[in-house]
Design goal:
With about 240 residues, the chain is α+β, with helices and mostly antiparallel strands. The chain has two domains: about 100 residues, no CATH class; about 110 residues, no CATH class. It is about 50% helix and about 15% strand. It has eight helices and six strands, in the order βαβββαββαααααα. α4 runs antiparallel to α5. The longest helix has 22 residues. The radius of gyration is 19 Å and the shape is globular. The C terminus is likely disordered.
């Protein structure tokens, strides 16, 4: 995604293809914390709602590296999806260091965001007003800037009023639909693989009507569907 289209963020999300309880996370991430502290950063571990967090910073700035927290049982349920995401990840080059790292595919970034937005719509149908109307053409620079400004305004309000759950939900909802729309336009989606990815999320499959509303707005030209048998995507070649 072009840097001009990116939302401000202070966290890095990492996926680990193994169970990661909080105690196991502490052992796993201790070398990272030690390195950060040796280079002048503060570093501490935190246990959030569904993630383990390494919070670090220097000179008043704070960053967060988040790892999904998974017990042995939860990991067993999601192991195939994690392995699929790793298989379809892409290698990125850090030119300044000559190093490479793996980044999940655009489809696997978008799928959980679509799943989360599906849940939001099921909980609060008033959010439908933000996805009414279809605009098949790419968003203009002015539209992107307008959406970014609204999201930043909402984030600032959410920080001021942390107990306002509706405001927090609206902020996350608009942030997610912005990310999916921009990812689809800037990086592009492999429709066959995206369909496979979204069908791996139970709340999408359980609530197809809400998921289709989102797909119609976010990907107006897509041929994918959330349920098998309804897709217009050709699957007669080697599976993605």
């Amino acid at each position: 995604m072009p840097s001009s289209c990116r939302r401000a963020t202070s966290d890095i999300d990492l996926a680990v293809v193994e169970p990661l309880s909080y105690s196991r996370f502490n052992r796993f991430a201790s070398p990272i914390a030690d390195w950060l502290q040796a280079h002048g950063y503060s570093a501490r571990f935190e246990k959030a709602h569904a993630t383990n967090r390494l919070v670090y910073g220097a000179e008043g700035e704070t960053m967060v590296i988040e790892f999904p927290r998974k017990s042995e049982r939860n990991f067993a349920k999601k192991a195939k999806n994690l392995e699929r995401e790793f298989e379809h990840s892409r290698k990125k080059l850090v030119e300044e260091r000559g190093a490479t790292y793996r980044v999940v595919s655009p489809e696997d970034i978008a799928a959980p965001k679509l799943a989360r937005c599906t849940t939001y719509l099921e909980l609060d149908d008033s959010l439908c007003r933000y996805i009414e109307g279809v605009k098949p053409s790419p968003l203009s620079d002015a539209e992107v800037r307008c959406m970014l400004d609204e999201i930043e305004y909402l984030r600032a309000r959410a920080d001021l009023f942390p107990d306002d759950k509706l405001l927090a939900t609206k902020t996350r909802f608009l942030s997610d639909i912005f990310d999916v729309r921009l990812l689809s336009e800037s990086a592009g989606f492999n429709e066959r693989y995206f369909e496979r990815a979204i069908r791996s999320w139970d709340n999408i499959v359980k609530h197809p009507a809400s998921a289709r509303l989102l797909l119609n707005y976010l990907l107006p030209a897509t041929r994918v569907d959330v349920l098998e048998g309804n897709s217009l995507v050709t699957h007669d070649t080697k599976s993605a």
